[in-house]
Amino acid sequence: MAAKSRSKTPKQRVVPEDLEAVVREALREAAGVKLSGIKKTLPKPYQPFAKEAQKLAEELAHRGEVLLRKAGKTALLFARDPMTTLSQVLLPRLSAQPLSEAELKKVANELAPGHDALLKPWLKEQVGRAVLHQHGSTKSKRFGTQPSEPDVKKMLSPALKSLKTVLTKTDKAAIPRKRIAELLLAELGIPTTPMLSGNGASGNGATRGQFLSALTALMAENPREALLSVRQLRARLSFSKEQFDSIALELMRDGAISLHHHDYPASLAESERNELVQDARGTHYIGIAPRRGA
Amino acid sequence: MTELASLPNPFRDNVVQDAWQSPVDISEIHAPAFDACQAGIESAARGVPCSLLVYGVAGSGKTHLLARLQRHLAQTARSAPDNVLHCVFSSIRLQTSPQLLWQHVRRRLATDLMRREQGLTQLQRLVAHQLGIAAGRSPRAGLLELRVLRSEDEPALRQHLQTVASKLDLPRDLCVVIEQLIFNRNVRDACAWLAGDSLPESALELLGLGVDTDEEREDAARRVVTALCRLAGETLPIVFCFDQVESLQRTATDQEALYRFGRLAADLNDADANVFLITCLQVAFLEQFKAAVRDADYDRIAQRSVLLEPLSAAQIERLVLCRLDAVPALAELRVARPGEPFYPFSQRFVCELALESPSVPRRILAACARAFEELQHGRSAPLPSTSQFLSLEFEARQKQNFAALEPCDTQRIVVQGADLIAHLEGAQLETDAREHIDFVITGPRPAAISLRNEADGRSLTPKLKTLLAHTQRDQSVPLVIVRDPRLPIARTAIKAREILKTLQDRGVSLIEPTAEALAALDALASILGDAKSGDLANQDTQLESGAVLAWLKALRGDLTLEPLQEFVDDLLSSRESNDTASEQDLAELLRHEHVIPVEIAAQILDCSAERVLDIGRKASGHCVVLEGPPAVLLDVAGVLPEAEAGQ
């Protein structure tokens, strides 16, 4: 009897259509995953597609939809900005009482698993921005939201003594104390008249003016619309994407306009996403409106 | 243990489900949007139709705004010019299939018209208002008269309705039903008719209506809704609030669903000069909505638009204080600490809330809920994973649905859940309108699904005839008829049974989904609908539809989905059965008897006890067989949900 010949054809792998959504979901649930560790985070039916998932995660990071953060030499994946997450989780605790690094690590492990590797850079950043303050010596170092304030009154006692002496003379000369206070504030470098807003902005006045004029024109053409399309406004201006986005974000910070974000930008094609305004946190804004009273 | 430990967290429950809720409210928040709503009502009251588009990101308070409007209208009804009603108010969450849009609006409008306040429904108040005006008295007098209607008042009311009907070209059936509802007669059946349910001949006879024949149900719903608009608009403005428009879309790029909504809204706008439409939309739909809807329709829907802005620091403070003071025990503790205005929170914490991006109420409340929990117990409960959250949500909604579902819900649930059925099967869905088919599942196990939930033989027969006319033997896509098991086809419906038998001979299957499968499908569809509309949040983390679908796919094969999976398998594995007539006989018998020994059932159905047992075991949607001896059959089609509801 002739032997049956068996031809082996490799099975074609069909990657599930929703793998991207699954990867995004997996990263949302398991923060601080290494690229090589993504397989473990996938539901069982998807684990055979770990390589494709890894590639997708890299693409998502490249598109800014997930964040790749370095902790030492290791790159870790996060669905949300880990520094923001740590701030949300740790700052309320620290506003109640100062905590040591070990205590903070414990809290981070409990409330934001996968984020402890970034605790040191987060502390450094917060101290640098004066959001947190270091208390105690190196050995008993703790962190709190309030600075450990020295006795200012004691430090100023010679100056206050001199001031009392001077005040007797100025009072006799009928110089109002308000005038004295203004001079002292000026000496301290604290302005006594309100600052003009907007002048210190980094975008130059002409480009901001063009931006606002185009917005006004768009509003005039769409009088019934409370919210206007960022895309339409962009089409009216010959700014580069960076220039347009930075002016829009700056005007929002200044309270001149409000920007309104897209809840699910991942549903848009990359070219469509590029037409929206994107901020440093990866939020995409689709709508724009002038602020009431601005 | 802190003094806060035993207190309820005042910041939980931060999603307002519908406009009839009464959430804690702060009038300064979104005041311009609220003013725009009031201006719209005033415009409609002057006979100038008006519409308002409300934009807001997820969690910005769109539904809360509608709830505020509804409550304001109810509270100020006494100060209204007529002392009776400001307007007729209907709030419609669009969690339905685009194919059933008019039927959904009809059901919601009927439900809202039948809401009672101080013993009278909105519909009764509306008619009282008109009676008062017609008789040259104050509407208030009309209302008082309606409370004490006597039999001698009936001719006058009937006369009035006839006059209004001929003036406004109202259908006779609608007038007859309204008359019954005003006099509180046959309320159950009249309400069911008004909502669009298919009623058996006996119920229609009782109401004095003709037989429900082969009229297209969407067209019928449109006629009733627009007629009700004309009726209300005769003397009062009528307000339609549309929420969760996004959930109509089957996919993120589905333009057709939005187009259909645009057509419906424009028809409503044209129905009467006193109509005011409010449409709530997510900001993300700013461009898509405008592109999908016809320009002429958009002009009718969006005569004005308003934006729900992020909260200012002062509004955040008011929101936090208002919630803190809403718990009396906490308010007492706070009085004892006048130096800490936000106790138990620090001033700094409340200031930092303004840094939340976007600073919308849902996000602020979620942050506060977490912080409050930490103060209570030293730690906040860990955020459940997405799958944990969705599983809990699914379980809760399934339980709630199981007790409440009626046979009339079956069509909505199956058509709305069609994309979920396709998703579970890994197949595609086609919803091209064909007269006899509701949707088609394509893929390795294709099936064309026809929902046939007509109440009795008279209304079912024409539909089955249409099916028969379009059905060939050995079709490439098998046809499956889906019918609720609580609606057995009576033995007297001879023609319907005959056509059904012919259809089955041509390879058509009849599937009766169990109540468990329907409850599961409805729960999943509502979760998905909420996700599409930005109303599904795991604390402050908004979940998109992609996350829900991925979770669902990972759940395949899980026991929790078993009833639904069985239904999907039944739908997509076409089978031939000759037992349908016998199953229907048994179902009809059990509907009357509920519990019956097999021997007696065999005598009534004129067959052997073994045959009855065989049918009973197969028809798990209808009955349970207690093997005995003596063997007994239990009706489960209607009894189980009732028992669950009783618990």
How does this structure look, described?
The complex is a heterodimer of chains A (294) and B (647). Chain A is α+β, with helices and mostly antiparallel strands. Chain A has helices spanning 19-29, 38-41, 50-62, 82-96, 101-111, 119-128, 152-172, 177-188, 205-221, 230-236, 241-253, 270-274; strands spanning 33-34, 67-71, 74-78, 133-135, 142-144, 228-229, 257-261, 277-278, 284-290. In chain A, 47% of the residues lie in helices and 12% in strands. In chain A, strands 6, 7, 8 and 9 form a 4-stranded antiparallel β-sheet that branches. In chain A, helix 1 crosses helix 3 (50-62). The mean pLDDT of chain B is 84. Chain B is an alpha/beta fold. Chain A binds chain B through residues 16, 18, 21-22, 24-25, 28-29, 43-46, 88, 91-93, 95-96, 110-111, 145, 224-227, 229, 231, 258, 260-264, 266-267, 281, 283, 286-287, 289, 291-292, and chain B through 32, 53, 55, 57-58, 252, 282-284, 286-287, 302-307, 309-310, 346, 348-349, 352, 357-358, 367, 370-371, 374, 379-380, 382, 385-387, 534, 541-542, 544, 546-547, 549-551, 553-554, 556.
Secondary structure: elements and pairs:
The complex is a heterodimer of chains A (about 290) and B (about 650).
Chain A: H1 19-29, E1 33-34, H2 38-41, H3 50-62, E2 67-71, E3 74-78, H4 82-96, H5 101-111, H6 119-128, E4 133-135, E5 142-144, H7 152-172, H8 177-188, H9 205-221, E6 228-229, H10 230-236, H11 241-253, E7 257-261, H12 270-274, E8 277-278, E9 284-290
Helix pairs in contact in A: 1-3
Chain B: H1 31-45, E1 50-56, H2 62-75, E2 88-93, H3 101-113, E3 116-117, E4 120-121, H4 122-134, H5 139-147, H6 154-168, H7 172-182, H8 187-195, H9 201-207, H10 217-233, E5 238-243, H11 255-271, E6 275-282, H12 286-292, H13 295-301, E7 304-307, H14 313-325, H15 328-335, H16 347-353, H17 361-377, H18 386-404, H19 410-416, H20 418-425, E8 428-430, E9 439-442, E10 447-451, H21 457-470, E11 479-482, H22 494-505, E12 509-511, H23 515-532, E13 537-538, E14 541-542, H24 545-554, H25 562-572, H26 580-593, E15 595-597, H27 598-605, H28 609-618, E16 623-626, E17 632-635, H29 639-646
Parallel strand pairs in B: 1-6, 1-7, 2-5, 5-6, 10-11, 11-12
Antiparallel strand pairs in B: 3-4, 8-9, 9-10, 13-14, 15-17, 16-17
